[in-house]
Every structure is written in structure tokens, then in C-alpha cells.
Amino acid sequence: MKLPLSYYSNQDVLFLAQDLLGKVLFTEIKGAVTAGIIVETEAYFGVTDKASHAYGGRRTDRTDTLYSHGGISYVYLCYGIHHLFNVVTSVKDEPHAVLVRAVEPFIGREIMETRRNMPASRAAISSGPGSAAKALGIDRDFNKKELTGNEIWIEDHGIQYTPDEIIASTRIGVAYAQEDALLPWRFFVKDNKYVSKPNKI
């Protein structure tokens, strides 16, 4: 059920951003397993995408992870507060990525509740990329991890959504990307309460 490395090698990041909806993101930290169903994503299209950290071929210590082969985690700190988890996709040196913006609690709800200090029934527990990462215990220690390993991975549990159940809209918080901020590269499950609000980081 764990997605193989070949899955992430797909060079169509828009396809993967949609296909990851319904997949289950797992972490294991000191024996504690938590998992959430991915219900919201954003696609980032490498060197030509003005919203991407790799736009224009930018390569720094932080963004170097994006240039790895697909199937690696890219975790960075946003606003100095929130850790954001991304799935690096495509082939080596083609820095595409999918940001996981929200998950629906699936396994280890009690652990998530402790991490977030709120009940799992509250959408805010894992709505928005910062909250989703915190609920799953994801921080910078998870950067550049193989998604086929035993610390962080994604499984296919046969949860599928029809095209009518998937909404495409503009990405959030990328106004600096000029015309690319208008691209409909955010995907989410219609009527799922854990999907973030437009102003939710």
C-alpha cells in the first residue's frame, strides 16, 4: 500500500497534486504513528513557476532538496513559525513539488489532539499546511527524507474522488508570483471540513 518511488517520478505535477487527494500521509515518531487523509494540495511547477522556491533555477541550501529525485520530503519554515510539508516530484534536477495543505485525521487521533491541543472533530486541527504538519509531528527534522522509508510515507488506501468532487482554485499566499498567482493549481475535496479557508496558512 506504500506508494513506490516510481509513483513520484511522474513529471506531471498537476496530475500528482490531484492524484494525491485521498492518499494517506503517515509519520512514525518514537513509535507513535499518526496518519491523515490528504484533502488539499497545491502544485509548484519548478523553475518556470514564479511561486516556486526554485523559480529561475534558484538553488540555495534550503531549496537544494527540491532538485532531488521525486519521492523526497521538502519541509521548510514559513513566517518563522509554521513547518510546511511538500512532496518533491518528477526526476532529478526538475524541482517540481506538491504542498500538502490539509489532511483529515485518520490514525492516531489522540496523538494529534495532544500535539494541537484540540479535539480531532475540530477542523482547525489539521486545516492549513502549518496545522497539518504539526498534527502529524512534521518539523525540519523531516526535510529530505525518503518517502519510501519508515519515518514518513504515503499509502494508497483506495480512497478515490470523482472529478466532480475535486475543486481547482488559485493557490494561497502567493500574491508575489504576479500572473502565476492566478493559476488554478490548488486542489481540494469538495465539502470536506478539513480543507483550509482561503486565508489559512
pLDDT averaged residue by residue: 95
Beta-strand percentage? Answer: 25-35%
Shape: globular
Largest sheet: 8 strands, antiparallel
Order of helices and strands: HHEEEEEHHEEE
Cα distance, first to last residue?
30 Å
Strand tally is 8
Can you walk through the features of this model?
This protein is α+β, with helices and mostly antiparallel strands and 201 residues long. The chain has four helices and eight strands; from the N terminus they run H-H-E-E-E-E-E-H-H-E-E-E. Strands 1, 2, 3, 4, 5, 6, 7 and 8 form an eight-stranded antiparallel sheet that branches. A hairpin with a 3-residue loop joins strand 3 (72-78) and strand 4. The chain is globular, with a radius of gyration of 15 Å.
For this entry, give a set of tags.
201 residues; eight-stranded antiparallel beta sheet
Quick recap of the structure?
By secondary structure, this protein is an alpha+beta fold.
Map the helices and strands:
Blueprint: H1 5-8, H2 13-19, E1 24-29, E2 32-45, E3 72-78, E4 82-89, E5 96-107, H3 109-116, H4 129-135, E6 152-155, E7 166-169, E8 186-189
Antiparallel strand pairs: 1-2, 1-6, 2-5, 2-8, 3-4, 4-5, 7-8
